[in-house]
Design brief:
TIM Barrel, alpha/beta
Length: about 475
């Protein structure tokens, strides 16, 4: 069954959700296979980090809207030479349109924060590319912009007082002027995952995951009294207000990257399948309602999810390698919501037993060992190399074992408790080729191997956390809690 990423296809009058395609993948499918996967999932907007000729050729005739990338290594040369810009356009854009539906060029990636030495030539590079598009009569079809991170907004909360880092004012003003003059849009990389994990507990996890907050914990801007139901909206609004502070307005924002990792190390407890599933599904629902943030409610937030596949070759901690929506065979990492109301996979009438988010690892390990041993659960699926082995963590393995035990034993008195570490849910926890017993996609559940009692699973060695994509640094004094 082909899973449709609802929201990944265009709404004629509304916002779209697209996807980024990174290539730091050890078993990257061929370009034609990638396009087949994209088409099978009805994804109609993608962003490439370069202008790979194989991908652009494979996309010909697909109708998929493509954003191509000027790499950071190319920015300086294009900024220094109009002829280099013309050559880049001829080679990477004009050679493929109209067969390949290229609609935007992303110039660099977070240039101001990642390669600040190139900043003086960033807008010049954009101008050179735009002039080359004009010469090729492609400027109305292909927009030029540049993705920037939230790092260049030092204090994004409250949004109404947010401003760009003053040291970048001249460059940012020129950038915004270019976007306005060329009828383009601001590309923003906004990661609530990092906003939450780097926020030192100031904001609740539910706020980062688009989950409703109780009335006593609602997040409000004290100056505008706007209520912010998600950190995502607050990040977008902080950027709009930062533009306003430079007397620049009417420039729409497109979120070129956002997402949530589904696996992390022991010191990255928020990188879980459950959180990633919740974030992505709620994001799709949020974007698909075609509204903007509180300050710009009529401007939909077109968004690209980071990312299509896990980039296992990326350096850094485990979380850095596990942002993918799909495995490279095209199967999904976790179930995805259909129109924000029901799941594409799963059976809402079936009750599943899964590990609780806040359960201790020691208790989960005991419960896992009991289920796979005395409980006679079929735990073959979570052995190394089997479909449910990854993500390789106690919680995931316990959920699989708990559920297998519960499905077999609940009719004769078996419970979903496991010393308080388990809970029931109607949401099918199956993901990718990992099918939980009881799922509408499974007949017997489990595998053909005999149950195996698992010993304690050792945690991965810790790795220094790198500089994040987003440094969402907030002053606690700016947080307003409404008491109703």
């Amino acid at each position: 069954m082909l899973l449709v990423l609802i929201g990944m296809f265009s709404n004629v009058l509304g916002a779209f959700v697209g996807v980024n395609i990174g290539t730091d993948v050890s078993s990257m499918p061929s370009a034609s296979d990638v396009v087949a996967i994209v088409k099978a999932h009805q994804i109609t907007h993608i962003r490439l980090y370069d202008a790979d000729s194989h991908m652009l050729k494979a996309l010909a005739g697909s109708g998929i809207e493509v954003t191509v990338g000027v790499t950071n290594e190319e920015v300086l040369g294009i900024g220094e030479s109009a002829s280099a810009a013309a050559a880049w356009i001829n080679k990477n854009v004009a050679a493929y349109v109209p067969s390949t539906n290229i609609t935007a060029i992303a110039v660099g990636s977070e240039v101001l924060s990642s390669i600040p030495h190139a900043a003086p030539l960033l807008v010049t590079a954009m101008n050179n590319l735009h002039k080359s598009l004009v010469a090729a009569n492609l400027n109305y079809q292909v927009k030029v912009s540049t993705p920037q991170s939230m790092d260049i907004i030092p204090k994004p909360f409250p949004p109404s007082t947010a401003t760009f880092n003053s040291s970048w004012n001249s460059t940012v003003y020129q950038l915004l002027q270019f976007l306005k003059n060329s009828d383009s849009y601001y590309m923003l990389n906004a990661y609530p995952y990092y906003g939450y994990t780097n926020g030192n507990g100031i904001f609740p996890l539910d706020y980062a995951l688009f989950k409703p907050l109780p009335s006593v914990k609602q997040i409000v801007d004290p100056n505008t009294l706007f209520h912010y139901n998600s950190m995502f909206d607050a990040m977008v609004d902080a950027t709009y207000y930062s533009m306003d502070a430079l007397n620049m307005s009417a420039i729409p924002i497109v979120v070129t990257e956002t997402g949530w990792p589904w696996q992390g190390e022991s010191n990255e407890p928020d990188a879980t399948v459950e959180n990633a599933e919740t974030f992505i599904n709620n994001l799709i629902r949020r974007v698909s309602n075609n509204s903007g943030p509180p300050s710009q409610p009529t401007i939909p937030i077109n968004t690209y999810i980071y990312e299509l596949f896990n980039e296992d070759k990326r350096p850094g901690p485990v979380s850095e390698k596990n942002w993918g929506l799909l495995f490279t065979n095209g199967s999904d990492v976790f179930p995805l919501s259909l129109s924000g109301s029901s799941q594409i996979t799963g059976n809402s009438t079936t009750v599943f037993c899964v590990a609780k988010d806040d359960a201790s690892e020691d208790k989960l390990r005991d419960g896992l060992n009991w289920a796979c041993g005395q409980g006679k659960a079929n735990c073959s699926g979570i052995q190394s190399g089997q479909p449910c082995y990854l993500p390789n963590n106690i919680k995931n393995h316990a959920s699989y074992a708990y559920n297998d035990y519960y499905q077999k034993m609940h009719t004769v008195g078996g419970t979903c408790d496991f010393d308080g570490t388990a809970t029931t849910t109607n949401n099918d926890p199956s993901y990718g080729s990992c099918i939980f017993t009881g799922s509408s996609n499974s007949s017997t559940g489990g595998g053909a191997l005999s149950p195996t009692a698992l010993g304690p699973i050792s945690s991965r060695g810790s790795t220094r956390f790198p500089v994040s994509k987003v440094q969402f640094l907030i002053s606690a004094a700016c947080l307003v809690v409404v008491l109703l």
